[in-house]
Amino acid sequence: MRQMYIGCGIVLLLVAGCMPTSGERNAFWTLTEMFGASSSGDDDSGSSGTGGDEATDVGFRRDMTVTFTNNSGTSNLDVSFAAWVNVSSIRSAEQQDALLRGGYVQLTSELQIGSAFTLVPGTFVYNGPGLAGATAVTLASSGAEEGEEFVGESLEYTLITPDVLLVFSQPPVSCDSVAFTFGTSLVDPGTGPATSFGGQKTLAQVDVYECDPFRPGLFFKSGGGAKAPNEYFEGENVLFEFSEGADADGNYATVTISG
After folding, report:
1. Taking Cα atoms as reference points, which of 163, 170, 164, 238 lies closest to residue 207?
2. How many CB atoms lie within 10 A of CB 64?
3. Whole-model pTM above 0.70?
4. Is it the case that residue 195 has pLDDT exceeding 60?
């Protein structure tokens, strides 16, 4: 069985030089002290290690591609996305390093995302400039006129498969919160509750988001079995398509998850 060595080694955990000296504590060190470190390289987190006794560059999970497409011929689209990995999903220092190399950063304090999510210190968030590392996405309209062939403008991001992927505009407090906006610029969500008219569309108008119970976003599913519509397996790709006209169920954004 391959032995996994964490940091300076389990035997040396009590040596002062092996521990962080600043006020910020590494979440993995804390979990190691509380529960010990696994001696096996096998876990449920999708490690990309190939086995053997030699040292390997252990990954965390496979990459996923998230694609955004604006299906409007006349209006620009403004939206953001955030993605994060919970502390409980990290099994080794190597996996932590893989996330850091993959563009994630670690929170040093608790963070609220509306009333829907609370991210504890140590959570890894995909690093962007917005709330919880959110990345803003703006897509121009196609400019297609009636009778012309439509080609929507798209933008894609490749990232290590997160535990949660949240596409939103306004920090979610209910399904009336703003999910995305059509127009020339993002409407200030502080002016009042979102409605279905005008350029603002709500979380309730994203086809796979849950409102009762309130659970916006998409979620990583580990293990086998059937997925819920708002779940993805490791390495699956996600497509968000935004339209100014609603589908038969009143949705203005549809989500397709594929292997």
Report:
1. 238
2. 22
3. yes
4. no
